[in-house]
Amino acid sequence: MEKLSENKLFLAIILAGFIIGAAIYFSNQSKEPIVESSVVSKQNCTTIPELPTGVSKLATKIIDGDTFIIEGGYSVRILGIDADERDHPCYDMAKDRLEELILNKEVKLEKGIEDKDQWCRYLRYVFLDNKNIGLELVKEGLAVARFSPEDVKYKEEIATAEKEARENKIGCKWGERKTEDEGKVEFQWEKLTTELTDLKVIGACNAGNYINKEVIVEGKIVNGQKDSKSNNVFLDLEKSYPNQCFTAFIYSPDLVNFPENPQNYYKGKTIRIRGVIKEYKGKSEIILRSLSQIEVGK
After folding, report:
1. What is the pTM of this model?
2. CA triplet 182, 185, 190: central angle to 5 degrees?
């Protein structure tokens, strides 16, 4: 009988130890989950809808030189390239160029080996009018070639484009940025600024992405013309007609509000123009009604 009591006591001690040990184990598990963050990210990506390869989507916002947003608010990371992040030398130029190429346009998205990355961004090669956008950015020296070991589609042509851009010192990545900066003229603006107007300042050749929006357009007047019949004035920015990036248009009745012969007065000057951008025969323009819409850089 005494021996039976000792056995019961021994079993009770073992059971108590097991219960205490289990409690400690599960307590630690709740405080320090062993699931890696990357796994959690992948699980969250299940809420992102499927995007079949080859579909076309509208690019609605540019994040940087290799990432943008499509309709629905989903992110796309361009495959085969790598562009500078914010606060790095070529960030602004790469981002602005990607805006010029695809913003507010439908682009074709071609899937690679992987569908999404750990931040739930679609991984896609991007095409517009059969033009490989990533390849174009590398050709222009605004991005470098970057491939995972598994995903090598278009690798040869993109790598070749980088080699040529590097050897020929093309673009922000490979050009002599210091020399370019030394030759660059910094203009002063007194009235047409973002701070004073709360409007975005854009380059003339990027104006086509802002149709029906009020902005400030900056560029150089390379040519000016007065129509012999209507006396309306056309001011071409950055390139001459019919290849102009942008046109400032003045109706003849409004010419009294501007310097005499504005087609000659503004020629060769870098200006800023404020107004709502309209499209006319495939080109972007702003109609000038008053002198307050235009400012010459000093």
Report:
1. 0.53
2. 140
Q: What range defines the domain where residue 244 resides?
A: 194-296
AA identity, residue 252? S
Query: What does the alpha-carbon distance between residue 263 and residue 69 come to, in Å, rounded to a whole number?
Result: 40
How far apart CA 271 and CA 247 sit, in angstroms, is 12
Q: How confident is the model at residue 42 (pLDDT cuts 50, 70, 90)?
A: very low
Quote the number of domains for the chain: 2
With respect to residue 185, please indicate whether it lies within any of the assigned structural domains.
Answer: no
Domain assignment of residue 15, yes or no: no
Amino acid at 103: L
Whether the pLDDT of residue 60 is over 50: the answer is yes
CB 84 within 8 A of CB 94: yes
Torsion of CA 39, 43, 49, 54, to 10 degrees: 20
User: Residue 132 and residue 146: Cα distance in Å, rounded?
Assistant: 15
Bridge-partner residues for 271, per DSSP?
Answer: 219, 296
Chosen domain end from 180, 208, 228: 180
Catalytic machinery residues = 77, 85, 121
Bridge partners (DSSP) of residue 156 are none
From residue 233, how far is each of 152, 254, 258, 264, 268 by CA, in Å?
Answer: 52, 10, 11, 10, 16
Taking alpha carbons only, the member of 108, 86, 83, 93 closest to residue 162 is 83
Q: Is 227 contained in some domain?
A: yes
pLDDT digits (tens, 9 = 90+) for 171-227: 889 886 544 444 456 788 999 999 999 999 988 888 888 899 999 999 999 999 999
In this structure, the number of other CB atoms found within 10 A of the CB of residue 69 comes to: 17
Please spell the DSSP secondary structure of 208-237, one letter per residue: GGGTT-EEEEEEEEEEEEE-TTT--EEEEE
SS3 13: helix
